[in-house]
Amino acid sequence: MIYKDLSAYIKRTVSIADEELSHILSFFKKQTAQKNELLLAAGQTSQRTFFVVGGCVRIYFKDEEGQDSTRYIAFENMFATALVSFITGQPSLEYIQALEASELLYITHEDFNQLRKKIPAWEKFYCNYLEKAHVNTSTRLLSFTTLDAKERYRQLLQRNPDVVKRLPNKIVASYLNISQETLSRLKSKI
Amino acid sequence: MIYKDLSAYIKRTVSIADEELSHILSFFKKQTAQKNELLLAAGQTSQRTFFVVGGCVRIYFKDEEGQDSTRYIAFENMFATALVSFITGQPSLEYIQALEASELLYITHEDFNQLRKKIPAWEKFYCNYLEKAHVNTSTRLLSFTTLDAKERYRQLLQRNPDVVKRLPNKIVASYLNISQETLSRLKSKI
DNA sequence: CGAGGCCTTGACCGCGGTCAATGCCCGTGG
DNA sequence: CCACGGGCATTGACCGCGGTCAAGGCCTCG
Fold first, then answer.
1. Which of A78, A88, A124, B92 gets the highest tally of CB atoms within 10 A of its CB?
2. What is the mean pLDDT of residues B31-57?
3. Nucleic strand C near CB of residue B65 (< 7 Å)
4. Which helix (H) or strand (E) holds A129?
């Protein structure tokens, strides 16, 4: 059953009645994505929050020269959404892309917000999600402002080795915000 | 009345009954700080969330060499807290410091969390606070990963000119995460 | 088998950091 | 009231990290 992992994830995060949980789950729909498929282009407004059942998805944006900068990578049992756009209601600067052939569940932002109004436990879940996102983003900000390229790579190897093992250099470099060439040189030195 | 601005701020953010609001306000205590006074040293655990009535406060951390990196600056009518530590309950990596002689209101993290459990509107307020924090941190991350020093300075001038006008170069440089010398050179060029 | 994408390696260079000298402003005490 | 000292800002000299450009090798897929 494809909803099992999502169900378990929600139960782990907040305490919730079974009927409420199944009500929530009923708004999640199945979606599959091919490798490299774009799930949200920047500028788009009607949007979805994804739960990764299998595969892998990233959030990224482009700078003026069209270079990617990857902000977040979601593997199995993780949520992925263009959160800033979700919060502000503005068109997104962030893109969402499948990095592998992926099996996903999604809920539209509209349904998500309706549920927040009706089910306090879901509001609580959202609040918890925001907390995690903030800690994550702050940690990232700390890396960029205090560490050089080599130290950021070491930290990634230690804290999130799957990113390095599972994904091509191109993506890893974009996640560390360094060029592919620099990453290649770092790898050969360590 | 010193609570007037805080009261107005909360009312602007969430809808709340008057008696609930005054209950919340009763947990905020007055505190004054001298210029440069440290309100929270990194490593400390018992903590406070501040509301700036007058003056100015910053959140910052230090890297290995002891250089500051300023993460957030709060002027009048803004909240300031070491949010990551608040969320995780871990000792803070972030310092809080008054940049001017300041008049503040504070609530302890313990009281803050008690109120979240009792008053749904306060939970909602917290959720809204997290949303703002996330947008802010994400925007900052975007600047650091896509803009060079000059462009970050321009952006700051445009979006938050008070920081440049009101605070010494030293702090502005730390907020932009560049050296004081580089900021000085940028200013002379623009 | 050929083409295109990804990784590696070398050459080069520019942004921004460090160090040091100097100037300026301001608070404090003789 | 002036002299001094300390903190902040400016400017120059220097240099290293990491980016760009280009060439070459390898793997995969049509």
1. B92
2. 87
3. yes
4. helix A120-146
